Structures are given as structure tokens and as C-alpha cells.
Amino acid sequence: MKKTVDRDYIKIAAIDIGSNAVKYKQYRLKHTSLRGHPIELDTFSRISIRLATDVLELGEISEKTSSKLIHELKRIIKKAKKRKVEWIGICATSAMRGAKNSAEVCNLIEETTDIKVNVISGIQEAYYLKYTNLSCIESKPTCPLIVDVGGGSTEVLVNSDEVLFDSFDLGAVRCLENKDYRVEWDRLYEWLEKVNHLPVEMLVGIGGNIRSLMKLLNKKKGYPVDKQELKNLLIELEKLSIEEKINQLGLAEDRADVIVPAGKIFLEILDKTSINSVCALEWSLSDAIAFDYYLNNIELFYDYKIA
Q1: Does residue 172 sit within a domain?
Q2: 76 and 196 part of one domain
Q3: CA-CA 20 to 30 A from 300: which of 79, 95, 198, 239?
Q4: What is the pTM of this model?
Q5: In whole angstroms, what is the distance from residue 206 CA to residue 221 CA?
Q6: Is the domain of 276 the same as that of 170?
Q7: Are residues 117 and 151 in the same domain?
Q8: Is the Cβ–Cβ distance between 55 and 61 less than 8 Å?
Q9: Phi/psi class of residue 173: alpha, beta or left (left: φ > 0; alpha: ψ in -120 to 50)?
Q10: What span, in angstroms and rounded, lies between the C-alpha atoms of 141 and 196?
């Protein structure tokens, strides 16, 4: 007979070393008998460190950027330990995958923080989209296309009779720096041809750029807009300078320059499919990492004893 331990939750955290920023999310991992989703967001912070520019221009992460990254990770991990966070997972994505000195930087992070960095592949990143919590979508689609546009890559997943997923080197910073190559666009178009034979009803967008676009359209998370609304917004945004996007729209500096390139990736996917609506969710790679930890550590909440 299973006997529950005497606590309702533990604290865990996930750090996503992305191409455009570092995201820290702290969670309450709730007792499995409680209602609702088992992971509950407790704290979120975003640190503006753009690894992608270094990697796209230099082929590696510069010493200056590496030092800043390690300093910030050390700071937030120290805070997390003070908050009695029991587990911290660190993952890194496109920029770290592409850096020639990736192993060196990751080793420095591990030596400084005593936490291993998991540099995940694009395919693994796409696979994690299967964990996306769709419950807050106003009209939940039975077959959504989930798209995560990051700084260096774009991941896609659709769950029909079978789960189809892939990753493409087409990110917002990559497009901004004109490092998006035709071969990757062609690979994406070929993948989307498969989607056109499936009953896909809606594009579900993941990431800060699509959430910012929905906010500019005065749409709540989980509420869809049609393709034309998104297209019209991008036309208006292209007319504004980066300074105007910051001062008039309140966008952060490292969001203002990539929001249009990111929006164009979403729009291109809509144009190449028969999908006419898109919504944005809070769900992110950090959430997937935390949920994966939950799935592999459910026994933390139980004592296995014979009654």
C-alpha cells in the first residue's frame, strides 16, 4: 500500500540557456493527489544574454559573454538554494549546440555551479513540445500544430495518429543576422507538406515573441487570432524603428529587434498550411524540463511500504 509523504509540494527549478536570453523558472511540484497540473510556476526571471550573435558571427561564445553567463547563473542558483529549491536542471539549446567552444563553456558552468548543463539536440527540443499544456486554450483544438520560435531555431510538433516533430535552423536572431539559409526553409516547407494532409486546426505558438505579438493585439493567452490580424500587425511593426518599438510599445531592447523576424516565421508557417488561426501559451522549454523531471521522479512523493 502506498503511503504519501508529509508534504504537499517540493520546489524545483529549470534554467533554459537560450540563444536570445537565459530563462529561470522555479516551480512547486505538487502532490500527485492534488487537482490540476502537477507543476505550478512560482518564480520567473529572464536575463538578457544573447549567445546567438557571438555564435553566428564568431562561431563560438566570446570570453566576455561566457563570463557574464557564468556570473548570472551563479547568482540565480545561489538565490535558488536559499529558497530551498531541491533540484535545478540546466538545459542549453541552439546557440550552445552551434558554438565551437560549447564543451569548454559548459564545463566552466559545471565547475562554478556544480550543476551539469544538458545541451539538448534540436530533435529533443522539438520532442519536448509533446508536454505542452493546452488546457488554457479557449477552444482547445484536437489536432494543433505547436511551434516554438527561438533565437536560433524553430521547433514544430503535431500530434495526430502519430507524433510528427522536427527542428530547423530558422530562429529570430538567425533571421535578423541573415543567417537563415534556403536549405532550412526548404526542409521546413517539406515537413509542412505532411501537416497539410492532417486535420490540423490551429497553430499554438510558444515563446516570448509570439506572446508579445498577442499582447500587442490585446489578446489574452490561449485566445486565438486569425492570420490576417497577425499579418497586419507585422506590417505596422515593420514601419517602426527599434527605438519606437521600445518607447511607444514598451518592448524590451532584446525583443524589439527580433519580434518581426520571429513573427514572419510564424506567418510563413501559416501561409504554407491551411491553418488560419494562432494563439500563444505561457508553456516553454523550462516547463517541459520540469514536467519531465516530475514524470521520472513521481516516487519522491511516496513511501512504498507494506500495510
Answers
A1: yes
A2: no
A3: 79
A4: 0.91
A5: 11
A6: yes
A7: no
A8: yes
A9: alpha
A10: 16
